[in-house]
Amino acid sequence: MPASPAVDPDAVLSRLEGLGIKLGLERARDLLARMGEPQRRFPSVLVAGTNGKGSTSALLAAMAQAAGYRTGLYTSPHLENVEERLRIDGRTIEPGRLGAILEDLVGLAERETGAPPTYFEALTLAAFRWFAEAQVDLAVVEVGLGGRLDATNLADPVLSLITPIGFDHREFLGDTLAAIAREKAGILRPGRPALVWIEDAEPAQSVQTVAAEVGADLRFASREVRIEAVEPRGWEGQRVRLATPAGEHGLEMALLGDHQAKNLGLAVRAAETLAGLGFDRLNSDGIGAIAAGAAACRWPGRLEPVELPGGRRVLLDAAHNRDGAAVLARFLDRLERPADLLFGVLADKDYREMLDLLAPRAGNLVLTRPASPRAKDPAELLPLLAGRDGVVVEPDPGRALARALALDGEVLGVCGSIFLVGEVRNGLRERFGVPAPP
Length: 438
Description:
Blueprint: H1 9-13, H2 26-34, E1 44-48, H3 53-66, E2 71-74, E3 86-88, E4 91-92, H4 95-113, H5 119-134, E5 138-142, E6 157-162, H6 170-173, H7 177-184, E7 193-196, H8 201-214, E8 217-220, H9 221-224, E9 226-232, E10 238-244, E11 247-253, H10 260-275, H11 287-296, E12 304-307, E13 313-316, H12 322-333, E14 339-343, H13 351-358, E15 362-367, E16 391-393, H14 397-405, E17 411-415, H15 418-432
Parallel strand pairs: 1-5, 1-6, 2-5, 6-7, 7-8, 13-17, 14-15, 14-17, 15-16
Antiparallel strand pairs: 2-3, 3-4, 9-10, 10-11, 12-13
Helix pairs in contact: 3-10, 3-11, 4-5, 7-8, 12-13
């Protein structure tokens, strides 16, 4: 299927945004068949979970790249530009190339089926096609929502990973951890290895049940990997010592937060498992690649410190549910002085629980509205903070950032929504020239 000339991807995707979320595999499966099954032309690792799946995917992709494998990485959502979702060896796809692939794909769907794909389906299938054409040695594919009915589940993974499971997207996945885990476990494959980092008994049992039904080779990395030490190194990152069945690892990592040790442990065990599947340069003799990948990995918008001129820091964190807020809260507890917070959230998130965790740790709090039609009105959050001082409501994110920067705290945390973090990240670059584009 020849590509069209360069096309603006946003012009194509804007036609699909109104279609919303439509879980199910029939539309995408039919389109992939008409495209010649590109997802079957490269080996892949499929990564599901509630929190940590993006970081785990980025870490594993960095390790594979450091080992010399041409590595694709597909993640969602994006921070600033849609091209961030599709990467090969750390480089995002060119906008014109993505637009051309999307235009071909949407045109094919409308001609052959009479209806376009959804936004997420289009990007997922575009990633499959780009990875196939680029002849990647391996693709690490992050699941979008759930697993069983997510378009990414049409990949043909040689290995499946599941990160810790919590409550999110209950309207689609269910109201219990067991039900959510069952949806995530839909990425398991008969006779193929699967690694999970799940410590809670309820979702662990649910995944075990699915694995037995499917016939997957399930192993708990959370039991196989021992985290021996986590040594924070200020804003520069941390050193993590791990022991696995294959050996011991002393790894430097730029990613902040003690939770990243678990994501790192899962990624290391995944790399070791891939070594046994033919990716020899990731074997125990190639610990250098695992260490180099861990050290090189960057994952913008997740406890990302940005130093501004004059030494003040902005901490960008896309925590958007209770578990993510708990991770951020633990990190804030380690600061010498309370951070000011710029907070905006979507209306379908657990904003009460998030504010219960974050507000007591904030010096001042600026409430705003993320750039999304699903955003929660910040004025409606104010009653949840009744009785505390230092709370400002500014619905416009740009003006809210200006007001937050006018405060005198040493650290300004920005959290609650990836939409808000992406907008603030871009706003900081326009004002101060940092951080670099993701």
